[in-house]
Design a protein that fits this description.
35% helix, Rossmann fold, homodimer, five-stranded mixed sheet, BirA Bifunctional Protein, domain 2, alpha+beta, Translation Initiation Factor IF3, 490 residues
Chain lengths: 490, 490
């Protein structure tokens, strides 16, 4: 393990990759664009899943599972959706391999096992799910349907980055069916709130809730709501989306229900998702030049204990003192690791656990035992303090709560510092290099596209909690009644 | 919903399909051979996952995630494994669709987007994982690696049945790496014990633990251990396998480690898995002609309460009595559903919840409230009793425990009844139609194959807890020192 090779300020992208690989979160797989999620990284993802799954169930949703493959004829039924994803689809064309007659021990695709209809590996599941819902929905009594699935999806990406953009990724996708437009819109907004709550309270990342402009909308949606976070290079990352799909999929798959007045109507739909991309956000928002910084609520190891010892007797004595501490912390629901390896020195261990982002480190040696004390170090601020063993466990518990709050507050402050208001094109161009810019826009896709061409910045969203205010479009000078969030983005 | 259309004794396979589809467990998907796992079925699978995942973690394993796609050149590296799965591989050959120039609104596979190397959709992940482990293992200090992944896999099956054999299915696959053969064998056996414990204590299905004969071994394994259960038609179902892979994959992928004596050695491997096939076992072992019967430990709804009412006032009064009962049961960790629909009659509800296998049904009407009583019905034996409301909650808790035990005992008794010992070929042929037959076998693949050709029965396993006993092979008459389990199987 090499340590501290990268500085955020000098090589942001190198710093990011270094942390992902060296904190044992993920690595590139032998398959182009795909990743292996390593156990430590996967443990963080599992914690995210648990928190999200609980929130989905608390809001009345159940999990189900739909097939990985979508027959091409179903995939193309909703035209906008199909068009939006066609360019990035992995396609299964054959169902058998056979021995290569010219090359012993090698296999070739069996030309006799060509599928009559090609299968698309799901890039998203609206098509296969709405084709299934057709069989489930007859009357208003069958509605709403409130389902979610945890799954892998594949989108063939030309430029990939671990967690942020990979050919295969893990996600959850909610798919709901409703009797009315109002109910579907309200579901769309509810799930946006669920995502925002999760981002702020668990990931400790402040987000702007908003609606996408037409250019940035999900292919097949009438409206796309999103949460946007700011990374430490000032760029935006879309962290979750919730789509109001109108009747587009119901019409494409002919899904109708008999309403209370006994009339047939098309069903209304939503879909919403977050993915392993959130791992990228988590890393980029909180980490520093020493490595990963994890919010306590997602840390697989919340407290690491490093013994300082020269002899085996020292270690035995320390272990005797540490064992009841471990039990007490575990009883408070805190996950603890006692790093008693004799193959590494304390300095190495300190650096390693810093790199892995463990929120609280305890260090204890023979002199501490004599004094009845222990050294407590927090990962976020690097502060150290000496604490009496007698009140250690509640101090640690309190500290974990404080770290969670501090990380969120730091991220809020950083975002405030990097967010500016621009009223002229010059101001806009200067400030957009720094972070988010709140500016007026004339509401046309053409202007948005031109701004993107000139600056690489896009409209991240039209904030939901916007106050209306008269102004002029930053580029065209045409009238506008609210500011939108511009930024460069991942 | 049509009820009780099938009898096990008359149409076992129709009965099975009827329950799967009508108890809302799963249905056929639009993709040939694939299934949609419906919310009620998925909730049972989630409970299985939780129980298994806890056991994996308690035995020191972590979860991780490896790619869905395996480049063909990696897939073919371990020859026996590749040969074993080649005939059932879905293959991705292209990464893009494009608009059909001759057919507006339709898509075709873009011939310009052909992959230079085809990708196999994983039928099992040894190849991609051992290719990854190569980068992780240098020294004995890096061992053991104890990982599991929850994933979807694809095996192109010509004849499929919901849960039992589907083209795509969900499973977990453990993949471990060890310094010594002994350690790997001990891991293989440990995971077999984990599966057996789960099967007996959670699924309430007794299993025979054993080793497969060479004919039935996993492609690429030195030894395959398995647990085998008996279904209600007397056939065997392989419910889980644990493979000792020897050094086969380490050699194929050149994975070596420096041992303590500083010498390079190949690593030893295991893999082990169970799948959504367990859902099929669960259904087939416990259910009856009225529908699904669920062991309480896996029931998404453990108790259903059906109010018997004519008027809204009746329902209001019942609800008032039922609400504290629900709270008390929930406080005991029991999941309860109050079925207060006014669109269905009690008789319909009774039948519906029986079909869905809810272990305990409570029914309460105005007269019960006057008497301070409630009717309690158990799903497994159909017994009904009238219970005082005052001691209801602990009675229900006790009843759930009893049902779990009773289902297991019933399955044990059934298996004993359908298991016989055969010493002559005539006895064998008679008894094999009924269930398991314990018989001597000369140990050769040829004899096993001939018995299969003649009777369709295979050796399910050589039981681990076998007592040695001199005898003669049922077919060849050659000497044998132990009986093995023969049966027809799914």
């Amino acid at each position: 393990m090499e340590l501290k090779k990268y500085k955020r300020s000098e090589d942001y992208s190198g710093w990011y990759n270094y942390i992902v690989e060296n904190a044992d979160l993920a690595e590139h797989a032998a398959v182009k664009g795909c990743m292996v999620i390593k156990p430590y990284g996967f443990a963080i993802w599992e914690k995210m899943q648990q928190e999200l799954d609980k929130r989905f169930k608390d809001t009345g949703h159940s999990n189900a599972y739909f097939p990985l493959f979508i027959p091409k004829s179903l995939f193309e039924a909703e035209e906008k959706n199909a068009e939006g994803f066609a360019k990035e689809c992995a396609v299964v064309t054959h169902y058998r391999l056979k021995t290569d007659p010219n090359n012993k021990g090698k296999l070739i695709v069996d030309p006799d096992a060509k599928l009559t209809e090609e299968l698309v590996v799901r890039p998203t599941s609206e098509a296969i799910i709405w084709n299934t819902y057709k069989g489930w929905i007859k009357s208003y009594r069958d509605l709403p349907i409130l389902l979610n699935q945890w799954a892998n999806v594949v989108r063939w990406e030309m430029r990939t980055r671990l967690f942020l953009r990979t050919t295969e990724f893990l996600w959850q996708e909610g798919h709901t069916a409703h009797a009315t437009s109002e109910e579907a819109v309200s579901e769309t907004k509810q799930m946006l709130e669920v995502y925002a709550d999760f981002a702020e309270n668990i990931l400790a990342i402040p987000v702007i809730k908003g609606v996408k402009s037409a250019n940035e909308r999900f292919a097949g949606a009438d409206d796309t709501y999103c949460i946007e976070g700011m990374m430490q290079d000032g760029k935006a990352l879309q962290m979750g989306t919730s789509h109001f799909l109108g009747q587009n999929f119901a019409k494409a798959f002919d899904v109708k229900y008999l309403n209370k007045e006994n009339k047939l109507e098309h069903v209304w739909a939503t879909s919403w998702g977050v993915s392993t991309r959130l791992m990228g956000a988590l890393i980029m928002v909180h980490s520093d030049d020493d490595g990963l910084v994890l919010p306590p609520k997602l840390a697989p190891i919340q407290v690491v204990i490093v013994p300082i010892f020269r002899s085996e007797e020292d270690l035995a004595k320390i272990t005797e003192t540490v064992n009841p501490i471990i039990s007490q912390l575990k009883a408070l629901g805190i996950s603890v690791k006692f790093d008693n390896r004799d193959t590494q020195k304390p300095g190495f261990k300190f650096a390693e656990w810093e790199l892995k982002g463990v929120p609280v480190r305890l260090a204890i040696g023979p002199r501490d035992i004599e004094n009845g004390t222990i050294e407590v170090a927090r990962r976020d601020t690097k502060e150290k303090m000496v604490v009496n063993l007698t009140d250690l466990n509640h101090k640690v518990q309190h500290l974990l709560e404080q770290i969670q709050i501090n990380l969120y507050q730091k991220a809020i402050d950083y975002r405030a510092e990097k967010t500016s208001v621009a009223d002229t094109w010059e101001e806009f161009c200067q400030n957009i290099e720094k972070g988010f810019v709140m500016a007026h826009w004339d509401g046309t896709p053409e202007t948005e596209q031109e701004i993107k061409n000139k600056t690489k910045a896009t409209i991240r969203c039209i904030p939901l909690e916007n106050k209306l205010e008269e102004g002029k479009c930053i580029l065209s000078g045409k009238p506008s009644n609210q500011r939108v969030v511009f930024s460069k983005a991942y």
